[in-house]
Specification:
Layout: H1 12-39, H2 55-77, H3 90-99, H4 109-117, H5 126-137, H6 143-154, H7 161-167, H8 172-175, H9 178-193, H10 203-208, H11 213-230, H12 232-238, H13 244-247, H14 254-262, H15 264-275, H16 283-303, H17 310-318, H18 322-339, H19 341-344, H20 359-365
The protein binds zinc ion.
């Protein structure tokens, strides 16, 4: 047995072993959702092999565990941490008092790990409640925001992209138009949060600038292009993928479909931007374009009454999970319907500008 009194042992190694046994399961459980939201857009976080979480989340958990341990150890040996008004933190005092008491020598850290990870109960001892607050919840405060910011900075993105857009000299031309600035701040914020439709303009923002749905979509596309021109490095780090031209097309309710369907020229322009060959394109973007063409080919096949499975093509060619693949296909289907199937087929395999979109499209289009 490892008694919780070991947490107060003079030897750091003995103390850390007991601390790990007691607190690691609780920290892991409490950090799970904030990490998923910050890093995986609410999706899965898995170790490549075996159990546990992805390498990035495991590293974050290690850091949190060590921070929490260090804070406890300095409270045990030195002055207690204080509140903003300078008072010693009462919960920490209660916890340290218990860990150095005679009772702690007979209490098993492993047996208490479960109760510590639980939600707490009325009957539990005060020191356990204090341990949950001080060892688990305190180190996790603002975890989601912190992880988001750190990950963005690691990717080379700006720590405060909205401040850059509002203040940096290079962004001055973008600020000439209030709507453009608002749209870009929204886009950057949503890309960072991993929102599913980051370039959809919400109603309140459309109202503020007096934009119709179609108009807002067009303006978002223009704003993103202006940003890419003004500062390609900022664009790559803070917007990057997904492909803005596709994502900029709204869609969901029937009214939106109608709006879009009316706008054949806009749909054709969108598809052209998305699918047509471009000089000086990066290999990555070219490959992506070819993958999109494969999906459009499958959508066109369905539109023409042939058998095809565009969602599968999207999952295979673009590496998307079924749900986002479904969303992408819905958007493309609306675009194809608005632009016309015959017109859209110019981008699909076997036509001069369509290139060769990969075998899977043909297999699924059969
Ligand atoms: Zn993870």
């Amino acid at each position: 047995m490892r008694p919780i009194a070991h947490l107060a042992d003079r030897d750091d190694a003995i103390a850390f072993a007991a601390f790990h046994t007691l607190a690691a399961p609780a920290l892991r459980a409490a950090a799970r959702w904030p990490l998923l939201r910050a890093r995986h857009a609410g999706g899965a976080c898995r170790a490549p092999v075996g159990t546990g979480q992805c390498a990035a989340c495991e590293a974050t958990l290690d850091d949190l565990l060590l921070d929490s341990f260090t804070r406890l150890r300095s409270a045990l040996t030195g002055p207690l941490p204080t509140t903003r008004s300078g008072e010693p933190v009462r919960e920490m005092a209660s916890l340290c008092g218990h860990l150095t008491s005679r009772a702690a020598r007979g209490e098993d850290a492993a047996a208490l790990a479960g109760p510590l990870a639980g939600p707490g109960s009325d009957g539990e001892p005060a020191w356990l409640r204090a341990a949950r607050a001080q060892l688990v919840h305190y180190p996790l405060r603002h975890l989601e925001e912190r992880v988001r910011r750190e990950d963005a900075v690691r990717r080379g993105a700006s720590a405060r992209p909205d401040r850059d857009l509002r203040q940096a000299a290079w962004a001055a031309p973008l600020r000439a138009d209030g709507a453009v600035l608002d749209l870009l701040i929204l886009a950057v914020f949503r890309v960072r949060r991993g929102v599913a439709e980051p370039f959809d303009v919400p109603g309140d923002l459309r109202e503020r600038h007096g934009l119709s749905r179609t108009e807002a979509t067009r303006r978002m596309g223009d704003a993103l292009r202006a940003l890419r021109e003004a500062n390609p490095a900022f664009f790559a780090a803070n917007i990057g993928e997904p492909f803005p031209e596709v994502a900029a097309v709204p869609m969901a309710d029937p009214q939106e479909r109608l709006d879009a369907a009316v706008d054949r020229d806009a749909a054709r322009a969108s598809m052209h931007r998305m699918l047509a060959d471009r000089a000086n394109d990066s290999v990555h973007r070219m490959e992506r374009r070819i993958s999109y063409r494969a999906v459009v080919a499958a959508v066109c096949a369905v539109g023409a009454g042939r058998r095809a499975d565009p969602v599968t093509v999207a999952t295979m060619n673009l590496g998307l999970a079924p749900k986002p693949a479904g969303r992408l296909v819905r958007r493309l289907a609306i675009l194809v319907a608005a632009a016309g199937v015959d017109w859209s087929e110019q981008f699909t395999p076997g036509t001069p500008s369509g290139g060769s979109p990969g075998r899977s499209a043909r297999r699924h289009a059969r």
